[in-house]
Amino acid sequence: MFDAWDVTLNGALIPAVMNEWGLDRPTAALLSTANLIGMAVGAVVWGTVADRMGRKRAFTWTLLVFAVFTALGALAPNFALFALFRFLAGVGLGGCIPVDYALVGEFTPRTARGKILTAMDGWWPVGAALSFFVSAWLLAATGSWRWSLAIMILPALLIFWVRRHVPESPLFLAARGREAEARAVVDELVRRTGATPVEYDVVAAPPAATSSRVPAWLAQLARLWREAPAVTAITWALFLTVLLVYYLALTWMPTILKEAGLAQTAALISGAGMALAGLIGVVVAALLVEVAGRKLLLSISAPLAALTLVLVAATLDDPKVAVIWLLVFGAIIQVAIPVLYAYASELYPTELRASGFGWASTMSRVGAGVGPLVFAWAWPVFGLTACFVAALVLVALAIAAMLLKAPETKGTDLA
């Protein structure tokens, strides 16, 4: 929810800071780029921490870092400092998704894992919708974008406190050879749930050859490409292309709709409608992911979502029709993204799971950070429709690679 709220907030902040500091469109786009590049750095840093030092440690601290620098961003006196604080807030928040999906996946039985990991993403459209609605309300009530940042701080600190009580992943503990601690976590869960205790084995992973001279993040990256090169290449391509389509919509749709003739508040509310429509997509994904499988569902929904965004651009002469297509886009893209997150978290073994997801997430953040800058330049040169067609082609290429080379993970045990 916080990830969605923060990313979506960039779309509401860009036109506001353009007005306050007299920025042109490409300069204002640096705000989104700074935030998303920060998330890219955070995904690598916290994913490595999660795989080397534990899911719980990374899980606890990501939101605290986010809250501190979000508070400083609300007080920023100029655009340069504001972009810096948004970058650092992104470093904190960027670790949430890879760490969270690794942790939840490792606590979930295989028969329900796809459904639960997919349903987790139901909080994304909630966060995105709240961001649009709250931003529109605060902008109308106060005339200042700063309250849109300030209001996020207290819930973030509350979640930091809650996260401190989440147990460490027993799969991580087992993989690190900490059998007694792994058994303590499992036995306590059995006791608390009232289940009948049964005998079970704790299997440690063989130790990986590492060098103390190599930074942990670089060692994990080398292992990803050494031990799972095809999976890593395909996962990166999927995250880069599918999330690029969504981030372009989140970042620029309020501006696009405003320039098409909608008032700023109406444009923000239309963006909120797009996000809320995503709840339909998440429900569809959760119902079908264990039936159709990850690959089939993703191969249909991702290109269809990109195509729908092309239709949004093609119908902007009639903003009401464009908004209808935007709602359809919001529903379909939220079939693709939850399935992609569930799928990516299942493709790697425990020792690489958070790092693998983190690096894939980094590719999406880098693409989404650079994408708005390229988009701001290409939009007036080639036109909006052509830009979204190019994004559709990239998605189709990534899906083709997945269908040819990536395994299906439905019903498999986590290694």
UniProtKB/TrEMBL annotation:
Among Pfam families, the record links this protein to: MFS_1 (PF07690)
Major location, coarse class? membrane
Q: List locations, semicolon-separated.
A: Cell membrane
TM spans, by residue? 28-46, 58-76, 82-104, 116-139, 145-162, 230-250, 262-289, 296-316, 322-344, 356-375, 381-404
**Residue ranges annotated for the Major facilitator superfamily (MFS) profile domain, each copy included:** 1-410
Supply the alphabetized keyword list. Membrane, Transmembrane, Transmembrane helix, Transport
Which SUPFAM superfamilies does the protein's record reference?
MFS general substrate transporter
What Gene Ontology terms describe what this protein does at the molecular function level? transmembrane transporter activity
Q: What is this protein called?
A: MFS transporter
Q: Which GO terms describe its cellular component?
A: plasma membrane
Membrane topology, record value: Multi-pass membrane protein
Highest taxon of the lineage = Bacteria
